Amino acid sequence: MNAGMNWKEHGRKIPKENLDRFIPNRSAMDFDFAHHALTEALIEARDGKKKEARELSPSKEAYRKRLAETLGLNRTRILAFRNKPQPPLHSHYHSASLHQQPLKPRRRRIPQSCSKVLDAPNILDDFYLNLLDWGSRNVLAIALGHTLCLWDASTGSVSEFVTIEEDQGPITSISWAPDGSHVALGLNNSQVQLWDSSSIRKIRTLNGVHHSRVGSLAWNNHILTTGGMDGKIVNNDVRIRSHVVGTYRGHTGDLWTQVVSSCLVPLQSNLLATGGGGTDGAIKFWNTHTGACLNSVDTGSQVCALLWSKNDRELLSSHGFSQNHLALWKYPSLVKMAELTGHTSRVLFMTQSPDGSTVASAAGDEFEVLGCFGMPDTAKNLIRMQPMSHFLPCLVSVETVITTSH
Prior knowledge:
The chain has 406 residues and is of the alpha+beta class.
């Protein structure tokens, strides 16, 4: 038979798409009411009760209709062709997703007092040095004159790590390697020394890099970048004997003689913040790709150091005269979130903990630990770079050669 033809049944043409026959759904039927509706009609027709019903008074008729509505007796359908749509499944997740109100962002409480104060006698009061650094193994290093001291933030223990000889020191800069086990020291006599904190052993000395004190250090895996009072920036590959792999000239005197502090934003690599010392007192924000100054804020006092949060778009600045305080700024609105006081002299040095929640600041003869940055949203494991132990034999042999040659 042709698929396009209509089927015939009892002389009627039925479209092909309407071939389903009705199957009553018993669960949707009220059999008691159906029986009543069928039998009542027969009884009324036989006994003539319809005539009696029509002769009811208006009040009785209204009462009868109200009673029929209440008891559900005014329905005319006997058979149900389909169920009523079922209500949606009630679940906590479904209900929460429909009725949950938007949550207001929680306002972080910023402590107004430090959690710990430690003595720091003989720390140098010098803008152009970097005497404080917090390593990835949660150990903070601070240079006190010729002595390097370590504070283990996990245990609270303090120890003297090494004391540099008089003709070499004092220590002018510190920087932990990414593995948190090795530390680089810049010295007043232009040397750069690498030390193993586990064995308390010097593993290499970089000579001939600078001609005057080394005031800044920074690691990028195995490349150690140094900056000195001679105005040079030098990249050193500590794995090889001829360690100098790049030199940049252009500055005169100590780096950042006018701009006393600067830092790149961890969450936005092309944004640089700089702070002016002396009478400038401004923090400026720069696009490193175009060189454009994006914004500026007048802090009202000399800017000694800047530190970006690792977890949020927040900037911490430390200041000198007249309040010797710390200021926490929200970027890009530059709203001052908090002003933190407690130091009695200009706050020259700052560093933050590996998880980015806590800041250590040093001034005068003490350093303070303060939890001013927010905790990370999720617990993040610290990603440690490849340890330096895999090329320690190379460093030892190079150290021996350089020592004998010099």
